[in-house]
Specification:
This is Major facilitator superfamily (MFS) profile domain-containing protein. Keywords: Membrane, Transmembrane, Transmembrane helix, Transport. The protein is mostly helical. 72% of the residues lie in helices and 0% in strands.
Length: 458
């Protein structure tokens, strides 16, 4: 309904509450989050050894622990944040609170001169990040129409990729050019821009934003769930009053839905596959082809790059045909490709043992996997959202007046976290591995010499 005559609509209410502006705001929010975490990677050795005065031998161990902290925080905090966000209804305040936490955590990290302060700042950042991922995707689910959800998730995926790669790049350049505080100034700029967008964004009420995305009786079989929904011998009538599912009952009800279970399992497998490349690719190309850091870096670009160009088209495809067939086809194509990348360099396959032929096979296979896994992007979030709609379509308000998007997405986020550990922690290992790649015959003493050289800047 329109506002009463004695109430004036907020300035710019149309575009501030439009789907595209909300998606753009959430995309920038995700980009900011990934930028903040990736930003710390190239300057962390300087922080630990020069500002904190720690021994060089402790740098890698503490760096990994610090960057892995987010994974533990997300597993613990996601359900709590999701539950409170669903009860509160309006999510804009949660998003602003998360941004304030990111700002405070970043300031603490910037001025930290002790390990306790450093880990405290990272803890605050981690809690803010967890809230952003859970509440941010729930905000998209609340405000994006069903037939555009996949495409909009594609835009967000592109923003996440830009933030992940842009953080370390910008931090390294600014640190070399202007020093420590000039590098941190970019964090302030990104956060201020994010503040402006989040303050401008206006949510629409759950009743007027988008209709409940329940599938019609004669739905297209191509839009079915990844797993068939559970069958109830005595289905409830939609007009029948049902008790609200809270606490453990909510999660039991959700896990009884085949769509949700299929999405969570697929998301977990997708995360495991992604993490395996980050931890094994540099070492494999070193041993099999004697490649250095440049070829290994180009392979990572070939693996991760297609998502930037294909996420939106694939999201559009899922909006048209559903997630079931694209996800199934994606996993089916991955089976021979994953087998094929293990063939080069293996003596049991003489036709691929030669370094030149093997390197071509491996490079093409990695590139193809990077293209195929685009079919898996967003499967966990989309299936979690649609599972909530499916259940609420049969039993309106079973998850309360504000729905259950945040809680469902928190479970999906946990499945990703458990599968991948924490990709951001892998960055430190990758930096060290690249030097090993450059010197395949290097001894442990050589590697230690390089590590000290890199950290001291000599």
């Amino acid at each position: 309904m329109r506002a009463s005559s004695n109430q004036q609509e907020p300035w710019g209410v149309r575009w501030r509450s439009s789907t595209y502006f909300i998606v753009a705001t959430m995309a920038v929010a995700m980009l900011t989050d990934m930028y903040l975490y990736g930003f710390l990677v190239p300057i962390l050795p300087f922080v630990l050894e020069h500002r904190l005065g720690l021994d060089v031998s402790l740098t890698q161990r503490i760096s990994t622990a610090l960057l892995s902290q987010t994974a533990l925080v997300m597993v613990v905090a996601s359900p709590l944040i999701g539950s409170h966000a669903d009860r509160s209804g309006a999510k804009r305040a949660w998003l602003l609170f998360g941004l304030a936490g990111a700002l405070v955590g970043s300031l603490i990290l910037a001025v930290a001169t002790s390990l306790f302060t450093l880990f405290a700042g990272r803890l605050i950042q981690s809690v803010a990040s967890t809230g952003l991922w859970v509440v941010g995707f729930a905000t998209l689910a609340d405000n994006v129409p069903a037939d555009e959800l996949g495409k909009m998730y594609g835009f967000v995926t592109v923003a996440i990729g830009v933030g992940t790669s842009g953080g370390p790049l910008v931090a390294g350049i600014l640190f070399d050019i202007g020093g420590y505080w000039v590098a941190w100034s970019s964090v302030l700029f990104v956060i201020v821009f994010d503040v402006i967008l989040r303050c401008l964004m206006l949510e629409r009420s759950r009743e007027t934003s988008v209709p409940v995305r329940a599938e019609p009786d004669g739905q297209d079989p191509e839009r079915e769930a990844l797993l068939p929904p559970s069958t109830d011998p005595e289905p409830q009538v939609s007009t029948q009053a049902v008790s609200e599912k809270t606490g453990i009952q909510f999660y039991l009800c959700l896990c009884g839905n085949g769509r949700f279970v299929g999405g969570v399992v697929s998301y977990f497998c997708y995360a495991v596959l992604t993490a395996s490349f980050d931890t094994t690719l540099p070492l494999h190309v070193r041993d099999a082809f004697h490649w250095g850091s440049l070829p290994a870096g180009l392979l990572f670009a070939a693996f991760q790059g297609p998502a930037v160009f294909l996420s939106v088209p694939v999201g559009w495809l899922k909006d048209r045909v559903g997630t079931r067939y694209p996800t199934t086809i994606g996993f089916a194509l991955l089976v021979p490709l994953v087998w094929l990348i293990g063939v080069p360099g293996d003596e049991r396959f003489p036709w691929a043992y030669e370094e030149k032929i093997g390197s071509i096979i491996y490079s093409v296979s990695v590139t193809c996997i990077g293209i195929v896994i685009c079919l898996l992007n967003g499967v966990g979030m989309m299936e979690a959202t649609q599972a909530v709609d499916e259940i609420e379509g049969e039993n309106p308000r079973i998850f309360g007046p504000n729905g259950g998007y945040s809680r469902a997405i928190s479970v999906s986020s946990i499945s990703w976290t458990l599968g991948i550990g924490d990709m951001r922690a892998v960055f430190i290992h990758r930096l060290l591995e690249f030097k090993i790649v450059c010197a395949p015959t290097a001894s442990e003493a050589d590697v230690f010499w390089w590590s000290s050289e890199m950290r001291t800047g000599e």
